[in-house]
Amino acid sequence: MKERLTMRTAWTIRGCRKGVLLLLLMHVLLGGLVAVAAEPDTIVMALNRDQDNMDPHLHFQRTGIIMNINMYDSLLHKNPQLAYEPSLATAWKTIDDTTWEFTLRQGVKFHNGDPFTAEDVQFSFERVLDPATKSPQYGNIRAIKTVKIVDTHTVQLITDKPFPLLLERVVFFPIIPKKHFTQVGAQAFAESAPAGTGPYKFVEWKRDQYLKLERFAEHWRGAAPVKHLVIRVIPETSTQVAELKTGGVDIIRNLAPDLIPDLKAHANTYVSTAPILRTHYLAFDMREPPFDKKEVRQAANYAVDRKAIVDKLMGGLGLVLPTVVHPMAFGHDATVEGYQYDPKKARELLKQAGFPNGTDITIHAGVSEAFFRQIAEAIAEMFTEVGLRTNLKLWDPGPAWDKFFRGEGKATHGYYGTWGYYSTFDADAILHPLYHTEPGGWVGKWYARVQGLDALIEAARSTLDKDKRLSTYATVQRLLKDEAPSLFLFAQHDMLGINKRLDYAARGDEWIWLYDAKLRK
Amino acid sequence: MIAVIVRRLLRLVVVCLGISLITFLLLHLSGDPVAMILPEATEADRAVLRETLGLNRPFLAQYGAFLGRALQGDFGQSFFHRTPALPLVFERMPTTILLTVFAMVLAIGLAIPAGILTAVKRYSIIDHLVTLLVLLGQSMPVFWTGIMLMLLFAVAWNLLPASGWDTWASTVLPAITLGTFQAPLFLRISRSAMLEVLGLDYVRTARAKGLHEWVVIIKHALKNAAIPIVTVIGLQFGVLLGGAVVTETVFAIPGTGRLIIRAIGQLDFPVVQAGVMTLSLIIVLTNFLVDLLYLWLNPQVRIS
């Protein structure tokens, strides 16, 4: 017995030694093969999903926009401070209330060598405006009725009525080469032969795997500082973080707040954040009890401790908002004060509304980022605390999307979600989708029923007179505060994780504009 | 024998038709893709698109048209990729098949010898140890194993790439992750199958003839024990083809599972249909092959 035991021990030790040898062997074999060290003169960026195709007009997704901006120029650009800058247009002015004239940059070339002219601008806009193209960007520019070529380097965009958002809309509107597109056809352009005038040109695309770009030496700004740009598709956040730490990837976005301390402390990485327009809100269904009563909606607004949510769940990276209008957006009125956290007042208001014992409600939440779930749960707790006993239902973005687009907006009582303004820095970009009741809008058509609000939103969006717009929006924000058609929450930050070899800073428009990125020596 | 095969082939066609009908029905119940394609359009624009896509026609007419085209290999254009759906699926198949094969080879290579060993050395320390490992292997969810392996081999030791699918080194971790999840099942099956066979009279006879113990085990016992093992392996192969989606997501592998899951989220009908039909066809065919193997392995089936 004893002998057998000794033998077994010996066998085990031998086994261990074998294991160690095997590991060493693996180390030698793999160590040489794996290119964990970062490639020279290359930026690798990870995105959680791929673009459906390479055609910049056939999608409207954030990840697609981030890919496109590095390959295509638009008429205008925004600097890191978010002020307009010339891009393909060097000057712009309004001729009358509905006519905008753009002077185009001379000597610009597309990646394939074609010269850039007014015809390309006209072609790009008309293509998206044509219903046959089925472009998801159509809604953004549908105010444009005519694109008129004045001469080879001047175009006019003519809108059906005064359209104050026009400049915002042409900051991301990729211009594509008419001649090249017609030659290669839509299919090839969308898969193997995309071309723009942007700082990086197309090299190779493997769907759902990577997009390889190379700097365009003849770009009108001058060649980009870094030669290669690789965009890898990595759906899982923890995998992105692992790649970032090992140097397989240089930049990742959409960090969850709880990852930030880890990446700040790590030797190879840092975090860059910037306030963005993405606004969290909870839309009340004003058509039905209990939220048809103003007191109940106000009670809900008093019930939630926004600051605690931002501090505890967002790592402090959030801006509490009095209504849904962001300070970075045109039209914000700084004199409107938000609801303070006051559970006692909330209970009183509920009593006034005829609910001395509280009431049961159901709230639906669209959880497109994992941390939205915690926020929704915190809100539900705080509601329940004052007597709005909340039954919370969580939805993946796909099914949530479907539920709120079809039929009668069936979510009972309320819907928690976020709105990113499509990175349009104007109050209209959130007021219209959230509160205008016209069919085809966002949740406004289902939930908002505020007397007179539609007319105010209409008035502010159909004039170019800035003072008039500002005063209308001031009225709107006061009305919103009082009527409380939503639970007003906060706006979040863009959160980037970056490898220390790369120098880059997050922007307020969620763009990742890698012309501004530099590799540290 | 031929009659058996023909009967099974016929059943196969019926199963495929059934799958196509169920997929089609479920998809059409799940929502309106037009709202996903044109999120900011007016109702009139959407009606036009619904018309072009044929989505306003009665359900059975739509299904008939779909079936007619599908039989010719045409599943239509993807709503979002704007390219034919079937090639999209085929583009991904090699990756998924490769991943599945790697994982299966790994799992089989580990599990069957271990299964035989634990059956032969029943109740020994090795048997107990392996049982413990099986318990561990089965209770670890795939995404957890994947991330742990990544943290160890990529982040802590820098031995292997954390994700991707371009070098052979990048295939190691996903194959281990998926293999670890499969191995316990194969191990349990091979252990119990071997145990059952080892107690039979013919094995005793073989031993009595004075054959070497390992000849008895490998040549005589294993062939009979192989029937349930082959069945389970065949079934699992099919499961993994579509079910490797978690591994694909964790390691950023462009596989079929990920394509289909995303298409479901977007309500991209053509891609879902092409994907589901391709996978079901492969699964059904694998099962058919398993049946054939069965005939070869088990003379009783052949005779009856």
Automatic annotation (TrEMBL), chain A:
Q: Keywords assigned by UniProt? A: Signal, Transport
Q: Which GO terms describe its cellular component?
A: ATP-binding cassette (ABC) transporter complex; outer membrane-bounded periplasmic space
Which stretches make up the Solute-binding protein family domain? 84-440
| GO terms, biological process | peptide transport
- Which Pfam family is one of this chain's hits? SBP_bac_5
Q: Which domain of life is it from?
A: Bacteria
Gene Ontology MF terms in the entry: peptide transmembrane transporter activity
PANTHER family membership? OLIGOPEPTIDE-BINDING PROTEIN APPA (PTHR30290:SF9), PERIPLASMIC BINDING COMPONENT OF ABC TRANSPORTER (PTHR30290)
Instruction: Say which family it is in.
Output: Belongs to the bacterial solute-binding protein 5 family.
Q: What name appears for this protein in its UniProt entry?
A: Solute-binding protein family 5 domain-containing protein
Q: Which organism is it from?
A: Tectimicrobiota bacterium
TrEMBL record, chain B:
> What biological-process GO terms show up in the record?
transmembrane transport
Q: Report membrane topology.
A: Multi-pass membrane protein
Task: Write down the InterPro entries for this protein, in alphabetical order.
Answer: BPD_transp_1_N, MetI-like, MetI-like_sf
Looking at the UniProt record for this protein, which Gene Ontology cellular component terms does it annotate, in alphabetical order?
plasma membrane
Subcellular compartments? Cell membrane
Q: Which CDD domains match?
A: TM_PBP2
UniProt keyword annotation of Disulfide bond present: no
**Which PROSITE patterns has this protein been placed in?**
ABC_TM1
Which residue numbers delimit the ABC transmembrane type-1 domain?
A: 93-294
Q: Where are the transmembrane segments?
A: 9-29, 97-120, 132-156, 168-187, 229-254, 274-297
Q: Report whether Ligase shows up as a keyword of the record.
A: no
Q: Which UniProt keywords are present, listed alphabetically?
A: Cell membrane, Membrane, Transmembrane, Transmembrane helix, Transport
Mainly localized where?
membrane
State the family it belongs to. Answer: Belongs to the binding-protein-dependent transport system permease family.
Protein name, please?
ABC transporter permease
Species the sequence originates in: Tectimicrobiota bacterium
